[in-house]
Amino acid sequence: MLRTWVLVLWLLAATIAASLIARLVPFVRAQAPGESLRIAEILAGPARDWDGDGVYDSRADEWVEVVNNGLAPLDLAPYRIADADSTIRYELSGTLLPGEVRLVTGSMAVAQQRALGHTASGLSLNNSGDTVILFRVGAADTTQVDAHRYGTIEGASDRSTGWIDDPATWVLFDGLNRYTGAGDPQGNGCPPTPGARNGCPLPVTETTWGKIKATYLGDR
Predict the structure, then answer these.
(1) 118 or 28: whose pLDDT is higher?
(2) Among residues 90, 92, 140, 194, which one has the fewest Cβ atoms lying within 10 Å of its Cβ?
(3) In terms of DSSP bridges, do strands 141-150 and 27-29 run parallel, antiparallel, or are they unpaired?
């Protein structure tokens, strides 16, 4: 009899706890059709000064790029970048025109986290593999807009992963650190393209990081 009452009390407590959690934590839905903001490119293993501040830092120089893949300007205020455990790493802002991309570096995430009084962990992209998630926060719930999981091949030094024409088909940009193994994805020999639409319009030739930074990051 005692065991029965213990079980009843335990189930009641679990029900109450679940109800409280449901009220406190926004409901997260799967990706909604027609969303125009997409994750475009991810670089998790920086080995150089990607944010252009003159100093290499493994946390500050990680980056994620998003693109407005729709036909109308997009307000970015409701959108958040998170990692595999759904921890919000960066709150987007401003407006993104159709076809325009927005680069978010680890240093930008650190600065925002400090300004908000949060732990300054940056984007926290694991080189061994991780998932980048894009959320849209609404009044009633939170929607997962996009997500991409990458592995150790994509997380190696100065390689990025992204899509060029089809958001469903991701490729490896390994022009700065060629991948010669037999795993997937295979590299396309093109360098990462932070702050620009993904592609490889010209034949791959020997270059320098200074030239690449001038092309894609400009004067910062």
Answers:
(1) 118
(2) 140
(3) parallel
Q: Check if the beta carbon of residue 83 is closer than 8 Å to that of residue 130.
A: yes
Q: Show the DSSP H helices in 1-145 as ranges.
A: 2-24, 106-115
First-last CA distance in the chain = 72
The alpha-carbon radius of gyration of the chain (Å, integer) is 20
Q: Quick one: tokens of 120?
A: 């300054």
Question: What is the mean pLDDT of the segment spanning 152-180?
Answer: 97
Cis amide linkage into residue 191, ω under 30° from 0: no
Give the 3-state secondary structure of residue 93. coil
Residue 207 pLDDT greater than 80, yes or no: no
3-class DSSP state of 148: strand
Tens digits of residue pLDDT in 33-81: 567 999 999 999 999 999 999 999 999 999 999 999 999 999 999 999 9
Q: What is the largest CA-CA distance in the chain?
A: 79
